[in-house]
Amino acid sequence: MKYTIFEDTRIGKRPYQQDRIAHWNTRDALFLVVADGMGGHAHGDVAAQVAVDCLGSAFNAEATPRIADPDLFLYRAIGRAHAMVVHQSQRRGLADSPRTTVVACLVQEGYAFWSFVGDSRLYVFRDGRIVTRTRDHTPVQMLIDSGRIREEAAATHPDRNKLLQCLGGPRAPRVEPTAHARLAQNDIVMLCSDGFWGPLTQRQLLMGLLGKDMKKALPELIALAETRAGPRCDNVSVLAIEWHDRAVPAPVEPVTVPMDDMPTDVRDFSATDPDFMHMTDADIERQIAEIKKALKKHDPERK
């Protein structure tokens, strides 16, 4: 696999950083994750870190060197990350569970596979246009999809920060069916938190990337997002790759749902996988051991 990777995360005007970004790779697979801890709930940074570490642990365990079933892998890994966040809040005796959004993308064999919960996004850019992107789990996105408001009005809508789904909430998330796209040479796959995409228009994103080197264009766009957000600037995080492999045969449009016709059906973990939310204590303790060091770094008082 040939690709260039870019990553940056900034605190913005917030008192501390609640975003987490990470990537892992083997010879034949690359896994990218962005999680945005929710500021309206305590310990959002811990929730984001737990989610990222849980997903990374799953990739390291299953990528040998490729993931056998990308759809099942993303479905289970995201759900287990939710279970882990809930379990951590119970162990700590927190009155309100910490929460986070997440978007995760697996790249292997010339394809990108992705899934998400919340409003952290994935974009695929090709030849100066947005081929596809995730559709946020928000009331505002529902208003846009129904034609009641325009996309440009989302940034100032009073419900812009409300989420319909997240990891760590009282209900297990319902995860979109895994989408996938055949990658063409020079495609850019970008994962980002809402602190990045929120202040920017679609036109600004496209013009900012058009004809520029990704590693130069993205820092400029991050700076623009910070400037446009002003004193209320959220944490800003971007994780992206530019694909350099030539597709054989020639790539076609992504085998996924276009931006203007996203699916409304979602899957419920508990309905399709009854054992999923009932991991044994031994299973949970094994995963906790793997992420304990990372958690201590971000939460020194944890015992």
Structure description:
- A hairpin with a 2-residue loop joins strand 6 and strand 7.
- About 8% of the residues have low confidence.
- Strands 1-11-10-6-7 form a five-stranded antiparallel beta sheet. A five-stranded antiparallel beta sheet has the order 2-3-4-5-9, covered by helices on one side. A two-stranded antiparallel ribbon has the order 8-12.
- Helices cover 33% and strands 24% of the residues.
- The radius of gyration is 18 Å and the shape is globular.
- By secondary structure, the chain is of the alpha+beta class.
- The chain contains eight helices and twelve strands.
**Oligomerization status of the protein chains:** single chain
Low-confidence stretches: 254-278
Q: What is the global morphology?
A: globular
N- to C-terminal distance: 41 Å
Question: How many beta strands in the DSSP annotation?
Answer: 12
Mean pLDDT value: 85
Q: In terms of structural class, how would the helical and strand content be classed?
A: alpha+beta
**Order of neighbouring strands in the sheet with most strands:** 1-11-10-6-7
